[in-house]
UniProtKB/TrEMBL annotation:
<comment type="function">
    <text>Catalyzes the oxidation of 5,10-methylenetetrahydrofolate to 5,10-methenyltetrahydrofolate and then the hydrolysis of 5,10-methenyltetrahydrofolate to 10-formyltetrahydrofolate.</text>
</comment>
<comment type="pathway">
    <text>One-carbon metabolism; tetrahydrofolate interconversion.</text>
</comment>
<dbReference type="InterPro" id="IPR020631">
    <property type="entry name" value="THF_DH/CycHdrlase_NAD-bd_dom"/>
</dbReference>
<protein>
    <recommendedName>
        <fullName>Bifunctional protein FolD</fullName>
        <ecNumber>1.5.1.5</ecNumber>
        <ecNumber>3.5.4.9</ecNumber>
    </recommendedName>
</protein>
<dbReference type="Pfam" id="PF02882">
    <property type="entry name" value="THF_DHG_CYH_C"/>
</dbReference>
<dbReference type="InterPro" id="IPR020630">
    <property type="entry name" value="THF_DH/CycHdrlase_cat_dom"/>
</dbReference>
<dbReference type="Pfam" id="PF00763">
    <property type="entry name" value="THF_DHG_CYH"/>
</dbReference>
<dbReference type="GO" id="GO:0006164">
    <property type="term" value="P:purine nucleotide biosynthetic process"/>
</dbReference>
<dbReference type="InterPro" id="IPR020867">
    <property type="entry name" value="THF_DH/CycHdrlase_CS"/>
</dbReference>
<feature type="domain" description="Tetrahydrofolate dehydrogenase/cyclohydrolase NAD(P)-binding">
    <location>
        <begin position="139"/>
        <end position="280"/>
    </location>
</feature>
<keyword id="KW-0511">Multifunctional enzyme</keyword>
<dbReference type="GO" id="GO:0005829">
    <property type="term" value="C:cytosol"/>
</dbReference>
<comment type="similarity">
    <text>Belongs to the tetrahydrofolate dehydrogenase/cyclohydrolase family.</text>
</comment>
<dbReference type="GO" id="GO:0009086">
    <property type="term" value="P:methionine biosynthetic process"/>
</dbReference>
<keyword id="KW-0368">Histidine biosynthesis</keyword>
<feature type="binding site">
    <location>
        <begin position="165"/>
        <end position="167"/>
    </location>
    <ligand>
        <name>NADP(+)</name>
    </ligand>
</feature>
<keyword id="KW-0378">Hydrolase</keyword>
């Protein structure tokens, strides 16, 4: 079997056109959604993601505000900036670009974002709501994955989803979201013994562990949906995922490429969450 390639870039583009219309509607009501991005330090990948986030905001009419803080910023200074933005009426969504420098503990920072402005969905209250199956902000990458699955007509209910990776940003919320969609979910991670035993049972395999080419054809069930969240750069600077694309595409039913798979959806879901935040703050219906 040769897999169908999931074109995340095209799907993201189509969704952004719809989101632009939602922003236009809000503007007619006198509301311009606003996103504040806090960037600490100058990590090259983070600089790229933040630049792309702001460009995406601009393209659909969301106002974006960038706060670049030095690598040496203290936790206290960061919290003060967040508190200022919590009270800013032009700002509907706040995100702190991750990773943070090692002297800053995200657990001391992310809970200080007002839960109604937490468009990354990392606040413990919103993470708890996701766990309880309540309506909330869902972290952007897992939300993007669920949209991709819907777009390819993948019915999640009753399927066995295996998630490789247990980060708070992707692995844990992705598994939780699929569980809420009635999948049977298995989490695997760096300490899992016999990874292949689990991954080869997956109808839906989500790989988010940051290990280039960890997943080969032998890890995958014939016809499975394989979602590669890995973003790794090889020696020549070329992007690769956690899945050996050339090998696995000959066995899977569907597969996301890197780049052009999940990545563009992450930013699109950030736009969507920011629009939802603006609606929620202004007490408009939030579908
Ligand atoms: N506060 C947050 N920090 C981080 C998040 C997040 O959701 N919130 N996720 C990642 C990085 N990230 C967004 O911030 C992100 C990663 C990748 C892409 C993307 O579009 N990837 C492209 C390739 C881009 C490239 O050339 O490097 C692709 O896969 O096609 C967007 C956003 C960690 N931090």
């Amino acid at each position: 079997m040769t897999a169908k390639i999931i074109d995340g870039k095209a799907i993201a583009q189509k969704l952004r056109e719809r989101l632009k219309r939602e922003v236009d509607d809000l503007k007619e009501k006198g509301i311009t959604p606003g996103l504040a991005v806090i960037l600490v330090g100058e990590d090259p990948a983070s600089l790229t993601y933040v630049r792309n986030k702001r460009k995406a905001c601009r393209e659909i009419g969301i106002r974006s505000f960038l706060f670049s803080l030095p690598e040496t910023v203290s936790e206290g200074e960061l919290v003060r900036k967040i508190e200022e933005l919590n009270g800013d009426e032009q700002v509907h969504g706040i995100l702190v670009q991750l990773p943070l420098p090692s002297h800053v503990n995200p657990a001391n920072i992310l809970p200080r974002i007002h839960p109604m402005k937490d468009v990354d969905g990392f606040h413990p209250l919103n993470a708890g709501k996701l766990m309880a199956g309540e309506k909330t902000f869902i972290p952007c990458t897992p939300l993007g994955i669920s949209v991709l699955l819907k777009e390819i007509g993948c019915r999640v209910e009753g399927k066995h989803a295996v998630v490789v990776g247990r980060s708070n940003i992707v692995g844990k919320p992705a598994g939780q979201l699929l569980l809420n969609m009635n999948a049977t979910v298995t989490y695997c991670h760096s300490k899992t013994a016999d990874l292949q035993k689990f991954t080869s049972m997956a109808d839906i395999l989500i790989v988010a562990c940051g290990k280039p080419n960890l997943i080969g054809a032998g890890h995958v069930k014939e016809g499975a949906v394989v979602i590669d969240v890995g973003i790794n750069r090889d020696e020549s600077g070329r992007l690769t995922g956690d899945v050996n694309f050339e090998e696995v595409k000959e066995k899977a039913g569907f597969i996301t490429p890197v780049p052009g798979g999940v990545g563009p959806m992450t930013i699109t879901m950030l736009l969507s969450n920011t629009i939802q935040a603006a609606k929620q703050i202004h007490r408009l219906p939030w579908p």
